[in-house]
């Protein structure tokens, strides 16, 4: 428990990220067990999860965004989750094929060397910003 609490209260980028991941806990009456966010709408799936017959159901869900707020019941949320997961599978598989990352799967979760890999990640972000800033400047000059 202590590493979790230490991570949440850390006054650094990791602490802010951990707190951001649980911010929805502060304004939900039920425990939020999953969150799906698009650019304009989001779904919070509420728990605890319950079993009815041979099926698992969330207690409900809340959609928020351009449509305002919409509360969903357990069955509606379960059906929407089924559709969302199918779309996630399609989108990720399409992305993997597009980037030729479908060769041989690695069945071990890759580890992260925080010092080395974080520095490489930041460098790639900065390179992306430079590249896209040049493209934006070129388009603006036309």
Q: Outline the low-pLDDT stretches.
A: none
Main β sheet profile: 4 strands, antiparallel
Helix content: 40-55%
Number of strands: 6
| Global Rg | 20 Å
Report the mean per-residue pLDDT as an integer. Answer: 90
Strand order of the largest sheet: 1-2-5-6
Shape category = extended
SSE class: alpha+beta
Q: How many alpha or pi helices?
A: 4
The N- and C-terminal alpha carbons lie at a distance of: 57 Å
Strand content: 15-25%
Q: Topology as H/E string?
A: HHEEEEEEHH
Question: What does this molecule look like?
Answer:
With 142 residues, the protein is α+β, with helices and mostly antiparallel strands. The chain is 49% helix and 20% strand. It has helices at residues 2-9, 13-21, 74-98, 114-140, and strands spanning 32-37, 41-46, 50-52, 55-57, 60-65, 68-72. A hairpin with a 2-residue loop joins β3 and β4 (55-57). α1 crosses α2. The radius of gyration is 20 Å and the shape is extended.
Keywords:
single chain; alpha+beta; two-stranded antiparallel sheet
Chart the SSEs and their pairings:
Elements: H1 2-9, H2 13-21, E1 32-37, E2 41-46, E3 50-52, E4 55-57, E5 60-65, E6 68-72, H3 74-98, H4 114-140
Helix pairs in contact: 1-2
């Amino acid at each position: 428990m202590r590493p979790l609490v230490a991570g949440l209260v850390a006054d650094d980028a990791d602490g802010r990220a951990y707190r951001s991941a649980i911010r929805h806990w502060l304004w939900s009456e039920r425990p939020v067990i999953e969150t799906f966010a698009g650019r304009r709408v989001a779904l919070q799936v509420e728990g605890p999860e319950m079993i009815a017959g041979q099926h698992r159901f969330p207690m409900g869900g809340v959609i928020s965004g351009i449509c305002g707020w919409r509360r969903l019941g357990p069955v509606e949320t379960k059906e929407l989750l089924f559709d969302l997961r199918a779309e996630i599978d399609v989108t990720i598989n399409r992305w993997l094929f597009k980037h030729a990352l479908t060769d041989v799967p690695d069945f071990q979760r890759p580890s992260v060397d925080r010092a080395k890999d974080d520095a490489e990640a930041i460098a790639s972000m900065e390179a992306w910003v430079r590249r896209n800033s040049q493209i934006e400047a070129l388009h603006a000059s036309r």
